[in-house]
Write a structure and sequence with these properties.
The structure is a single chain. The protein has about 425 residues and is an alpha/beta fold. It has one domain: Alkaline Phosphatase, subunit A. The chain has 14 helices and 18 strands. The strands form 5 sheets. A 7-stranded mixed beta sheet has the order 2-12-8-1-7-5-6, with helices on both faces. β16 and β17 form a beta hairpin. α7 packs parallel to α10. The relative contact order is 0.19. The structure holds zinc ion. Zinc ion binds next to α4.
């Protein structure tokens, strides 16, 4: 990758200064032909500071990494719906909790990224390992192929797509959405990672050879949360190795491919005495990595993952306006009936009436108080900003038509711990 990039830098480019340089980036005259969006489920942003992730860091080093990215939702369906429809939860209206015994509404009839790219002549492939992204809910809209595969075979299956669609049509344009389950519960890191993070074998005793999140949520045994966190980081490293294989498979096309790597939401790992995701809006859950490779425009310091559709279309030279853009500031998003937002990446307001949410309304200074422990007296104008934002974006209509997930999907969701 590095050799290729050096070869492509314009000869007119000035001599590099001896001091700190921005990450090398392609100087392109034309938009990239292809696009790959990689989502690693349940990956909180700061986990990449603690785990060794050479593939993701390498991609970020050659491209760009956002200082602060927000997930469009607090669990998979609203998060990915936001990413693929380019809108906030308030905008697309899919605003439900987990565990509804397999009955959910279909996604709203908003245009989705794959549909737009398909209309532009792209081949469109989606490989996903989280059963919630089911066809029954409408996630397949616009995809030539939308298939659930496990993390273990995702790269192998993507290689087939590269051979069948990309290599067979070198003049064509191609889109792939690749969704790893990654460190989503139940976490089962490789033996190497268990050793590295000191996660003892007895935590994995049981039929699925994984630590169940339920025990960590309840904090039911001494050390279970420490073990869970170690296993979480171990799986991230295993997933990073898969990302490395994926980028290697993509290498012949990489010079002409926009790559976005992010997550659908993070995971609380004991902060505020909570483990898991799906409801709260603390940073561990809403702050996710955001890496782009081959993008011309600089990333803003803060963005929502819901801006991905706009970013992709802008970078591919496709004229299209999406509800959430890279200029949508401050980021405001409704999640599961609550609302949280930041302004300039520093002050964040949380509306959560539950006792664990700290009361009806709290504002935090994320620079001085990254763990969101000490609510401020001054709301920094965020209460009014929320009202203004809501006035400008009427809440989407209630989705009433429920569909039953297939038995196979239902079984996988049970295994993931969603339907307990
Ligand atoms: Zn998820």
């Amino acid at each position: 990758m590095l050799l290729f990039l050096l070869a492509c830098v314009s000869p007119e480019a000035p001599e590099p200064a001896p001091v700190a340089q921005p990450a090398p980036r392609l100087l392109r005259s034309e938009p990239p032909r292809n696009v790959v969006v990689i989502v690693i489920d349940t990956l909180r942003a700061d986990a990449l500071l603690e785990a060794d992730t050479p593939a993701i860091d390498g991609l970020a080093g050659l491209g760009q990494r956002a200082e602060h990215a927000w997930s469009a939702g607090t669990w998979t369906v609203p998060g990915v719906a936001g990413l693929l429809t380019g809108s906030t939860v308030r905008g697309h209206g899919w605003d439900l909790g987990t565990g509804r015994l397999g009955k959910y509404p279909r996604l709203p009839d908003a245009p989705m990224l794959a549909q737009v790219l398909s209309e532009q002549g792209f081949s469109t492939t989606g490989l996903y390992s989280n059963g919630y992204l089911a066809e029954e809910l409408g996630f397949d809209r616009g995809f030539d192929e939308w298939r659930r595969v496990s993390d273990k075979v995702l790269v192998k299956e993507f290689r087939k797509t590269l051979a069948k669609r990309w290599a067979a049509d070198p003049e064509g344009r191609h889109f792939a959405y690749l969704h790893f389950l990654g460190p989503h519960s139940p976490v089962s890191p490789s033996a190497e990672q268990r050793d590295k993070y000191g996660v003892e074998a007895h935590w994995f005793e049981g039929k699925r050879d994984a630590i169940e999140i339920g025990a960590a949520k309840r904090n039911s045994q001494p050390g279970v949360r420490v073990a869970y966190k170690g296993a979480y980081k171990g799986v991230i490293e295993d997933t990073d190795a898969r990302v490395g294989e994926l980028l290697e498979a993509l290498e012949p096309w990489l010079e002409d491919t926009l790559v976005v790597l992010t997550s659908d939401h993070g995971e609380l790992l004991g902060e505020h005495n909570i483990v898991g995701h799906g409801y709260w809006v603390y940073e561990g859950l809403t702050s996710v990595p955001y890496v782009v490779y081959n993008a011309q425009a600089p990333l803003p310091p803060m963005l929502s993952t819901a801006a991905t559709a706009q970013l992709v279309c802008d970078e591919l030279g496709i004229q299209r306006s999406w509800p959430v853009t890279l200029d949508t500031m401050p980021v405001v998003s409704q999640r599961e009936g609550k609302l949280a937002m930041t302004l300039d990446g520093r002050h964040k307001a949380i509306w959560d009436p539950t006792p664990r949410g700290g009361g009806p309304f709290s504002v935090f200074d994320l620079q001085a108080d990254p763990l969101e422990q000490a609510p401020l007296a001054d709301d920094h104008g965020l209460a009014q900003a929320r009202l203004d934002w809501e006035a400008g974006l009427p809440e989407a209509e209630q989705l009433t038509e429920l569909v039953q997930l297939s038995e196979e999907t239902f079984r996988q969701l049970e295994e993931l711990g969603y339907l307990q």
